[in-house]
Amino acid sequence: MVRFPESARPILERRYLKKDQSGKPVESARQMLQRVASHVARADAVFGASASEIAKTTEKFFKMMANLWFLPNSPTLMNAGRRLGQLAACFVLPVEDSMQSIFETLCHTALIHKSGGGTGFSFSKIRPAGDIVSSTAGISSGPLSFIEVYDVATETVKQGGARRGANMAVLRVDHPDIEAFITAKSDPERLNNFNLSVAVTDRFLAALKKDIGFELVNPRTGKSVRNVAARRLFDLMVQSAWSTGEPGIIFLDRINTANPTPALGPIEATNPCGEQPLLPYESCTLGSINLASMVTSKGFSYSRLKRCVQTAVHFLDNVIEVNKYPLAEIEERTRLTRKIGLGVMGFADMLIKLKVTYDSQEALKWADKVMGFIDREARLASSRLARKRGNFPAFKGSMLDRPDCSHMRNATVTTIAPTGTISMLAGVSSGIEPLFAVVHQRRVLEDEVLDQVHPLFVQIMKKAKLYNRKMISQIARNGGIQDMDQVPNSIKRLFRTAYDISPLWHVKIQAAFQKHTDNAVSKTVNFPAGATIEDVAQVFLAATDLGCKGITIYRDGSRAAQVIQTTRQNEKSTKVTPRPRPEQTFGMTQRIKTGCGKLYVTINSDSQGICEVFAQMGKTGGCASSQIEAAGRLISLALRSGVKPHAIIKQLTGIRCPSPSWQNGTIVLSCPDAMAQVLKQAANTETAPIASAGGVCPECSGMLAHEEGCLICKSCGYSKCN
């Protein structure tokens, strides 16, 4: 029996199931899992397994996935047993300081994106803008210019449909162009196919702690070009992250301290969501255990978890064998280290089932205990595989080559990766994130949206005899339950959502998992809209102190307005500039009866939320029509300047004209009042469960959520990077 929830069906049909030439699915969910299980189990034949043994392994893999105990990353579900055959999600490619390297890597990037993978790069070796190019006697344009070239190329390729191009650009904090890199996303039209991360070093952190200057070094010459205040650089990172959500930070020296194969070179970059540090040309095979499914009527089942970890490590190592790599260099380097990344999803649901509050000491203990168990069992499983199949080829001389560890099949075994889409398939919370909402809106037909209530909330409220549909509508409007008197406090504490939880608790949970994770942890620290720049600084410093390998934050609604720092020292100003009208928008038009006639109000949104309002009378001409047009233009200008829809609604509501009207039992006082009513309806839909978290989904026009360092649509399963 395959246990996918009903809500997973449209996601499976849209993204995972085989289709015929007309786009109609030609396999069931069960057949998809059988296809994946049989293809991955086939790798056992390389190591001498008989046909009957492979059949048993196939059944074991199938049951693990069908029970939703474990699911591999999306490329494996999509491509295993199919012509493309590329099963890895994440790659890192080298970028050297030469035109040949830059454009050769760009070509390789296009091939990887076409095959369904995401790519990470360090641009730190490229000489800074204005530096000498000796071969042409010209001037270097710097790393940012080439990042923009990569961004345009990604936009062009867009991975052919099933998955979209996703990139990570990393620049060392000591690169001379670091300020321009940090503020690159202050323009919302720039680098939309890239996440940005600053590679912070121990030297920088020491300078920051002492509040002293820090040397920026030309990578071409290795010489210092200028000294900057470490505090000023840190403040710039914090301010940019507060206003745009980027850049994130990766702690480069901490990552390299944990590099299992330093003889192969230093790690310089990660995959697009930051959880997988890799050497140049490495790829990694990922999969996640559903922690919610490990809770039974008798409590948390470590015996089930142990079996699942053993089978999942076997599965992921097999993927390395059967994968069709997009480049020979990637196959060679991947097989040299055989890195796998076993992670988790459904942590928040697990806590709810155990009646544990997410932001509590008890939750930290569970994170430590469960991930510690997974890490130990994964290492044991990898060691057992190595005794049968051999150590990974780069084992000798690696950090793992020591007296207490004579066998290891995989250089790394654990990663907390984004599970945006596969967690929706499993019907559980994403990765180690808290719940994003108690009620999500799901588009089921072209014009029909249903409220999808968290099943555990329904179960618990029904048990308490408190569940009713009217309450669900109220939750959908409010976006949460913490202010609802009819929900008991004992239930409220279990269903605290991302914005109900202190950002510092987000970091504490991330650090608890990082403690037992070979690679890194993909997580977003969510801030409410009213969070201060100082709040973000506190989280960045907490991530430094608690042992995280990276940190990504997002302040609700932050991309709508930018805070710009002037060039004058110690002088800051808030400067509101309307962003350009987007080339593509998604919207709705509503007819509303006014005293002047029928008014047609159009509300349009883009990836950052509601961006414009148009209104037109059924009859044209006259003073009223020109005033309506003017009102629409000014509303649109305000929206694109960062003014919240509800602030506009407040100003327009109640404006009266001599000829009020009625529609559906509601009085319409004037044309501006009518526009406010339609805007309010659109804004309430937008701010219901997912608020203004990330804008509008490009596929279904649902709202996007910032989770796990990525943008995810809870309605259709779209993910910008997974």
Regions with little confidence, pLDDT below 50 for 5+ residues: 561-574, 687-693
Global morphology: globular
Give the number of helices: 23
Helix content: 25-40%
Q: What share of the residues does DSSP label as strand, in percent? A: 15-25%
From the N-terminal CA to the C-terminal CA, the straight-line distance is 26 Å
Q: How many runs of DSSP E, i.e. beta strands?
A: 30
Q: What is the SS-derived class? A: alpha+beta
**How confident overall, as mean pLDDT?**
89
What is the CA-based Rg, rounded?
Answer: 26 Å
For the sheet with most strands, the description reads: 9 strands, mixed
Secondary structure layout plus pairing:
Elements: H1 9-16, H2 29-41, H3 51-66, E1 70-72, H4 74-79, E2 90-93, H5 99-115, E3 118-122, E4 132-133, E5 138-139, H6 143-157, E6 167-172, H7 178-182, E7 194-200, H8 202-210, E8 213-217, E9 224-229, H9 230-244, E10 248-251, H10 252-257, E11 269-270, E12 277-278, E13 283-290, E14 295-296, E15 299-300, H11 302-322, H12 328-337, E16 340-345, H13 347-353, H14 361-389, H15 420-426, E17 439-445, E18 448-453, H16 455-463, H17 469-478, H18 489-492, H19 503-514, E19 525-527, H20 533-546, E20 550-551, E21 553-555, E22 564-565, E23 572-573, E24 586-594, E25 597-606, E26 609-617, H21 622-640, H22 645-652, E27 661-663, E28 666-668, H23 671-687, E29 704-707, E30 710-713
Parallel strand pairs: 2-3, 3-6, 6-7, 7-10, 13-16, 19-21
Antiparallel strand pairs: 1-13, 2-13, 4-5, 8-9, 10-20, 11-12, 14-15, 17-18, 22-23, 24-25, 25-26, 27-28, 29-30
Helix pairs in contact: 2-3, 5-6, 9-20, 11-14, 14-19, 19-20, 22-23
